[in-house]
Design brief:
Largest sheet: 4 strands, antiparallel
Shape: elongated
Strand content: 15-25%
CATH topology of the largest domain: PH-domain like
Radius of gyration: 24 Å
CATH class of the largest domain: Mainly Beta
Number of helices: 6
Distance between the termini: 81 Å
CATH architecture of the largest domain: Roll
Helix content: 40-55%
Strand order of the largest sheet: 1-2-3-4
Length: 223
């Protein structure tokens, strides 16, 4: 596809089918976790009421129900906002990308130094993606296959006039980061290590809190 956008602006909208599939895929994991965590905490609070008679635990139940309701409500708002606001507009000399909350970025074609059209291998799925990098290798625009069809990615890449870099096989974020360190963040390249660090930090905080509470209890008993 060639760049024939000199006379008009072409607007591309996200694919509802792709996004619905991505949402269903994510809900399989996140929805299950939400039900298990919220449900277990509600059951635990109700059991404490039955055993101890402490009716303040009903407040805990209400809190978890409120949090779950708020989470579901935000998810619905986010889903609608993504489809309503996201768009890519290709003009004669620049493109505009509008994200889910309506913020628009303008990128001049002359600022694009690298176009990457590839399949990215994620833990649960492999997706087509488009990366536009500036001349220093910093990421300018990313189009994800969870939202944008391949035809849109090809059109956006072609509009820049830069020959795309295509890999013969799917690559991981870590592999991309080795070649383009300013395009892929450490967080994206190391999700498992990040999860271990977060889990370890939470565990450490819990241990510290338990030690402090235990020390306070000993002091009170000793006094």
């Amino acid at each position: 596809m060639t760049n024939n956008l000199a006379a008009s602006t072409h607007t591309f909208l996200p694919s509802r089918d792709l996004y619905r599939k991505a949402v269903r895929r994510d809900l399989t994991v996140s929805g299950t976790l939400l039900v298990l965590i919220t449900g277990s905490q509600i059951v635990a609070a109700l059991l404490r009421v039955a055993v101890t008679g402490d009716y303040w635990n009903y407040a805990v139940v209400g809190l978890y129900v409120a949090l779950a309701t708020a989470g579901i409500g935000f998810s619905m708002y986010f889903y609608r906002s993504v489809l309503a606001n996201s768009r890519v507009q290709l003009g004669a000399t620049s493109l505009e990308v509008t994200n889910w909350f309506g913020r628009t970025r303008t990128v001049a074609y002359a600022d694009v130094g690298t176009v990457i059209q590839t399949l990215v291998r994620l833990p649960a799925v492999t997706l087509p993606m488009l990366f536009l990098l500036d001349r220093d290798g910093k990421r300018l625009v990313t189009l994800y296959g969870t939202l944008w069809p391949t035809d849109t990615m090809i059109a956006v890449g072609s509009a820049t006039g830069v020959t795309p870099t295509v890999f013969p096989a799917a690559v991981s974020y870590r592999e991309l980061r080795k070649r383009y360190p300013r395009a892929i963040s450490w967080v994206r390249a190391n999700p498992i290590l990040l999860a271990v660090i977060i889990a370890g930090s939470v565990f450490l905080v819990v241990i510290v809190v338990m030690v402090v509470l235990f020390s306070m209890l000993l002091t009170t008993v000793g006094g």
